[in-house]
Amino acid sequence: MSADESKSVEASSSAKAAAKGTADSIKSFISGGFGGVAAVLVGHPFDLTKTRLQTAKAGQYTGAIDVVKKALAVDGVTGLYRGVVPPLLGVTPIFALSFWAYDVSQKLIRTITPNRTSQTLSTAELAAAGFLSAVPTTLVTAPVERAKVLLQVQGQGSEKKYKGVIDVIRVLYREGGLPSIFRGSVATIMRDGPGSAAYFAAYEVVKKALTPKGADPSQLNLGAIIVAGGSAGVAMWSIAIPPDVIKSRIQSAPNGTYSGFLDCARKTIAADGVKALWKGFGPAMARAFPANAATFLGVEASRKLLDGFF
């Protein structure tokens, strides 16, 4: 083979690799959106219960079951889906960005470690990729969570100030501009950075452990996906509740209540003790397994479908 032919082959291989990388990123983006929709449909009632426990005045509820009973008494079954529109509208970009960023982060780690003996990432590297995936996602997650929390909280006895998600954004912008809409962004990254690290690492590790010897973990195995996805959710929420409590309080409180993440943490502990940082733990953990099993089923099934197209 001549030098020119060799260069042509190398160029063709590089072009094919680049095209494959782009296709993989697109598929990660789309499948992440499908996974997010599945997560919201399964998990929103649990999330509403968690948020109300975290933000309610002392003594307003006796526990998670009491929250559910009172929501049903006031609004019926639809009350359990109060505030569902913001996550449904935001879930596609949030989860799409998350899974896309996770895919890109894995490629980045391989790029900066060119002398590695295996293309398979270690558990620590998977966790690092998961943490990095939370950074761009926060740009969408923070305002969506802000709107969702305000809509969820106003159904527990406070004045119904907002008519819907568009009204929330409009009012927040009028009252405080973009800073008001993005309030709680620091708390969001404090929750989602470590949480995503545990999330993706746990999924990959558990799925690999449950895959039969000699089989490819990337192939669709419903049992392994359900258990690994559920385990990923449990791993994430086992460490994400304290910053989530602070995030919910910052995003639901009147202007000027807290000066920031640390101020909210200090005032929360001073008023209600350290145990207040674990409010909503029960509903969050109850939601974690089914919602995230649904997430990864949606991701893996849609990814397999997309692989058949390009």
Give structural attributes.
single chain; 310 residues; mainly alpha; Mitochondrial carrier fold; globular
Percentage of β-strand residues: under 5%
Q: CATH superfamily name?
A: Mitochondrial carrier domain
The CATH topology turns out to be: Mitochondrial carrier fold
Task: Indicate the CATH architecture.
Answer: Alpha/alpha barrel
Describe the overall structure.
By secondary structure, the protein is mainly alpha-helical. The protein has one domain (21-307): Mitochondrial carrier fold (Alpha/alpha barrel), CATH 1.50.40. It is built from 9 helices and no strands. Helix 4 crosses helix 6 (185-210). The longest helix is centred in the N-terminal third of the chain and has 53 residues, at 3-55. The model has no long low-confidence stretch (mean pLDDT 89).
Task: Give a brief outline of the structure.
Helix content is 76%, strand content 0%.
Task: Map the helices and strands.
Elements: H1 3-55, H2 64-75, H3 85-111, H4 123-153, H5 165-181, H6 185-210, H7 222-252, H8 261-272, H9 281-307
Helix pairs in contact: 1-3, 1-9, 3-4, 4-5, 4-6, 6-7, 7-8, 7-9
GO molecular function, one term: O-acyl-L-carnitine transmembrane transporter activity
Subcellular location: Mitochondrion membrane
Family: Belongs to the mitochondrial carrier (TC 2.A.29) family.
